[in-house]
Design brief:
This protein has about 300 residues and is mainly α. It has 2 domains: about 1-140, no CATH class; about 145-295, no CATH class. The chain is about 55% helix and about 0% strand. It has helices at about 5-15, 20-30, 45-60, 75-95, 105-115, 120-135, 135-140, 145-165, 170, 180-185, 210-215, 220-230, 235-245, 275-285, and strands at about 255, 255-260. The chain has a two-stranded antiparallel sheet with strand order 1-2. The longest helix has 22 residues, at about 145-165.
Length: about 300
């Protein structure tokens, strides 16, 4: 891979070649985990979560080109492209293409390439996700209300999965010894990324209301979102902003309510539904600094 072309420029060309080819995007994502020389056995297990979520995006059609009979989502395409570009740049740098890394997020991917751990993978993956969210907020605003709501759900869940590995006390309180195992992207429990597939239909754009989609949500997804993640949302975003060196992430939450492309005035949608299991989760898994007890909601 020795060349006068920089790693950033090479990555841009790789992504450009598959921009309007959803299957090509998926193949490129997978190639990144094989490294610059096609053999990276310590990195391959980490592709599990990334590829599963990619398959869901393909089924929904959000990565389809804008000129297709059923156009994809400019926002989803942009977020996916940022992850691909950062990953490709790290592959180029690892293979000897000149640098330096063009962004902090590409540096995170290079750190993962050098030392593939669960925490390093989350810092790289979620760093790219957050950067893409922040730089494409205008595209998100153009989506319909239901899509905008679920962009927040996706963000909450990927941040929470990172915290399971890197901040067990924040993420799971008294059950923190289990947190790293539950969040490890190499293991099947990373279905935390995929629960949306049980809520959202495999179509784009979403046509039903937010509430009608929530009413279809399976029990575990509802318990996860409202019973476990929601009570610690403000702390989760503050921790993630520090962990990812992304202070702009704090503009996506206010008083514990997600506000990415979503009005704070409509925050009632984040209030938990009446449920014994959700109340039990609040009592048994309180966030740090909030002791359990019968007086807690």
């Amino acid at each position: 891979m020795k060349s006068e072309v920089t790693a950033a420029a090479w990555a841009g060309r790789q992504v450009g070649s598959v921009r309007d080819d959803p299957a090509g995007r998926m193949a490129l994502m997978e190639r990144c985990y094989y490294g610059p020389f096609g053999k990276a056995p310590r990195h391959l297990p980490f592709r599990r979560a990334a590829m599963s979520f990619m398959r869901w995006q393909l089924r929904r059609g959000v990565l389809q080109p804008t000129f297709a009979d059923r156009p994809g989502s400019p926002w989803w395409r942009a977020v996916n492209e940022r992850i691909l570009r950062d990953g490709c740049e790290a592959v180029g740098l690892s293979g000897g293409l000149p640098g330096p890394a063009s962004s902090r997020t590409a540096s995170h991917w290079l750190s993962f390439a050098d030392r593939p751990t669960a925490r390093a993978w989350y810092r790289a993956h979620n760093g790219s996700v957050v950067a893409a969210y922040l730089e494409n907020r205008g595209l998100a605003e153009a989506e319909n209300a239901t899509e905008r709501f679920f962009t927040n759900v996706v963000l909450c869940r990927v941040l929470y999965a990172h915290a399971l590995v890197a901040a067990p006390r924040l993420s799971l309180g008294p059950l923190r010894p289990l947190a790293p195992l539950l969040g490890d992207p190499r293991l099947g429990m990373t279905g935390i990324f995929l629960q949306l597939s049980r809520v959202l239909p495999d179509e784009y754009p979403l046509r039903d209301t937010v509430q009608s989609n929530l009413d279809r949500e399976v029990g575990f997804g509802r318990l996860l979102d409202f019973g476990v993640i929601a009570p610690r949302l403000q702390q989760l975003y503050e921790w993630s902003a520090r962990e990812l060196a992304a202070p702009g992430l704090l503009d996506c939450v206010r008083d514990g309510a997600p506000i990415y492309a979503w009005s704070f005035d409509d925050r009632d949608v984040w209030q938990p539904p009446e449920s014994f299991m959700i109340r039990l989760a609040h009592r048994t898994l309180p966030p740090p600094g909030r002791p359990p007890g019968p007086g807690r909601p």
